[in-house]
Amino acid sequence: MYVCGITAYSFPHIGNARGPVVFDVLARVLRRQYKLTYVRNITDLDDKIYDAAQKEESKFPKLLSGIQKFIKRICQHWVLKNRI
Known about the structure:
The protein is mainly alpha-helical. The chain has three helices and two strands. It is elongated, with a radius of gyration of 15 Å. The protein has one domain (2-78). Strands 1-2 form a two-stranded parallel sheet. 50% of the residues lie in helices and 5% in strands.
């Protein structure tokens, strides 16, 4: 199961938690009956990222670096642990 993750153009908010939580629960349910590989990406490069980098007056790799670190930390709390 492939799920698109957060597009990191700004710091995450509670609305960003919906996808990881919903699809984590769905994957757990499906794993009870099927062999499942669950893959989720973290970021895509798109216009939102370029616009945010211009607004912050920085290069997008620097912008993404800080946001990705924050996302990795916060996702530890959003996604259920590997037990039911």
